[in-house]
Design brief:
- The structure is a homodimer.
- Chain A is mostly beta strands.
- Helix content of chain A is 13%, strand content 37%.
- Chain A is built from 2 helices and 12 strands; from the N terminus they run E-E-E-E-E-E-E-H-E-E-E-H-E-E.
- In chain A, the strands form 2 sheets. In chain A, strands 4, 5, 6, 7, 8, 9, 10, 11 and 12 form a 9-stranded mixed beta sheet that branches. In chain A, strands 1-2-3 form a 3-stranded antiparallel beta sheet, with no helix packed on it.
- Chain A is elongated.
- The interface between A and B is large, with 49 and 49 residues.
Amino acid sequence: MLRPMNYCSDCGAPVEQQIPAGDNRPRWVCTACHAIHYQNPKVVVGCIAARADRVLLCKRSIEPRYGCWTVPAGFMELGESLSEGAARETLEEACAQIDIGPMFASVDLPHIGQVHIFFTGRLCGDYSAGEESLEAALFTEREIPWDELAFASGRFALECYFRDGGRCAGGQIHTGCIRGPRQAVQAD
Amino acid sequence: MLRPMNYCSDCGAPVEQQIPAGDNRPRWVCTACHAIHYQNPKVVVGCIAARADRVLLCKRSIEPRYGCWTVPAGFMELGESLSEGAARETLEEACAQIDIGPMFASVDLPHIGQVHIFFTGRLCGDYSAGEESLEAALFTEREIPWDELAFASGRFALECYFRDGGRCAGGQIHTGCIRGPRQAVQAD
């Protein structure tokens, strides 16, 4: 489950897998300076940005899932909060400013070491395709290209959003887990 | 904001800070093999484990905050879900099995690149101090050593829990942000 690592990022010597004293799982440990290089899951943040009964989706211009539609989302960066990350991704992928709303859905993907966290938000003003998008567009629930969605976590967030009546209000969180490739979300 | 990195973990050559093509922020990039080493926030998971009107806290036997009390919590590991991580930390720090409940609170700490996520849970059976604890004990709201709590995020989770009536039920999430050292949580 560790991601590949050959050399110590502190001193440049080779690393090897060891279970450090007082620990209970393998880590990459430097054979020279003995630095322990912990690896942890990454967070993906996204936003269901709405205007009236429509939500904003992006058609991906990059792999994976080139040409499929996605809720604006991407890796959370150092120095930002979850909601700031979700707003930034919406700006980068759909050139859209939003009033960010509550955290709305969380999906674990333990097989790839990721957690996907979605917010709701209200679209303010214009939108257009960002660098990682071929197109950005608004869809009602019926108009959404359900068979051309890029990711199961985004599908889960959209399904929860519309099941709740398509509201931005709330604070009620929906949680689920994806246990392997090409699997759907199992709701908690 | 990048964490220190001197050498490429792929090939062992020196790295330097660069903004890669198509990116908009500095990354550690290898001067030889050009691998980009992304750094992202880490997730801490914890659990407010309850029995009737009491919650389980641990007195820390390690730094930081040696001797202060904490909600069982620690870094999420690769290969687990958020709730599995919260249950594992409760087992490791308080030797306590729990029935994990809903996600309950989320606190961003952008100044240190962390997100702290708390669950509720019901305590099943015994508990005792784990390796990182001097002591584990149950407290009612009034009994909690509020002036000896280790971390502001755990305090926020406890305050929200008792303000909601000390229930494990829900799905209502409380969110907030800590913007600097020794600061309290600003609720969203």
